[in-house]
User: What shape does this take?
Amino acid sequence: MTLNNKLSIKDFNFYYGLLQALKRITLPVKANQIFAIFGPARSGKTTLLKSLNRLTDLTFGSRHTGTILLDGVDIFDSKTSLTDLRRRVGMVFDLPTPLPMSIFDNVTYGPKLRGTTQKKQLIQIAEKALRSAVLWEEVRDRLNTSALRLSGGQQQRLCLARTLALEPEVLLLDEPCSGLDPISTASIEETLTRLKKEYTIVIVPHNIQQASRVADRCGFFLNGELIEEGTTYHMFTTPKDKRTEDYVTGRFG
Amino acid sequence: MRIDRTRYLTQGIAKILIWSATLFTIGVMILILFQILSDGLPVLRLHFFTESPRSMGREGGIFSTIIGTVALTFVAILFATPLGVGTAIFLREYTRETKVSRLIRFGTDCLAGVPSIIFGLFGFVFFVIYLNMGWSILSGGLTLAVMILPTIICTSEEAIKAIPYSYREVSYSLGGTKWQTVTRAVLPHSLPGIFTGVILGVGRSIGETAAVILTAGSSLVMPTSFFSPIRTMAVHFYILAREGISMEMAYGTGAALILLVLFVNIIANWLLNRYIRKKG
Assistant: This one.
């Protein structure tokens, strides 16, 4: 574990009541890379993502042991500001979750919470974020219409823009392309590859092909355990573990 | 064949029952409205609304009772809305389902079923006598506030409950505090539901008599402050009819009351629609 790891997960266990969702996870995530977490359903992928910005705190009866370091600082430390952490580690959910307000209000929701109120500044932020998420051209003339009128793919890119508007350091993406058509998927994947110059990205891809297309490194999860972790090339060509091999070749599950 | 015939028969009977139930309900409503309005509308002249009652209400208009009704309802809503909505927010957002929250909910459910005269008695003992507020707009308004509180809590809670969990999750994930999340992601979208509860409360306040007589009095004098006693339109109607002062004026007051409730509902609907349209 060295300091150039953006995120270091060490001996991390997570429990929902009596159910253990994550078992002794130790995983480094390097800066400016895309790290993909794949595995079958209920293997703990979403739990790990939500642990990284402590959205798991919202779940009653959950607890954890172990540490997660962001730039070498423990995110569970009592001195860590929860709101700062969530601004630094942004998340996009698996289903498009636009709030029932205008496109502009959606994109500027985070900055407004942070205390940015100047209209001019907010417009700049919105334009930059929407451009990053490749949505600007489609919505520039109707920023004040309801976000609910956008198509599914546009809504998901809006959610990405909304997260980007806070200029986080780490992006957590939970199956950001589920329910999207191949063209929208391609445009989001293209965006991600471009974004990794500025961000560290942890993604739960919606299938392993997507992992192989976008990720620099991958981790394979099964029943809450990290089975294997390595470069995407290694994971897809010469996996060490039999279970990983079975999964990536489609012989599994 | 026989099964088919039974089925058609059941279908037919069900249809007749449902239709007659609906017709009966609408019929009764129309009958009541017709009865009051046919006797009351002829009394409604402009001076009926602008003049205060004279000689016990036998002559003059009902101006002071309109003021009384509006003031009393205003006080009731002013106190009940923040308390009720606050309680609902507490129950839904600030606490988990525990013994305490269940106790609070059980309490409000019980309160909702208590007859209004009991609230009147409580208001008389507590506000009028113990707090020495006398028969006044304030005593009556506070009593009505306590009476409509369960309705507002219940409807607000339902409205808040209907907001998808994802709105909250999104707000937190963007660095929102609990307060920011409640005020920006939850409340604005549950406002229409909360509004419905408030309007129900307004309706009950306008129509209440028993609790009002015990706490706000039945004075026909024009109120000068929130400590003045007043008579509401509903109480005026009751006294005019009960004591045989003037059936004509009683029906006039009744008709005016119906029009007031109608007016409040139309305005409320209009405001609500405007709010929803503005949000897109």
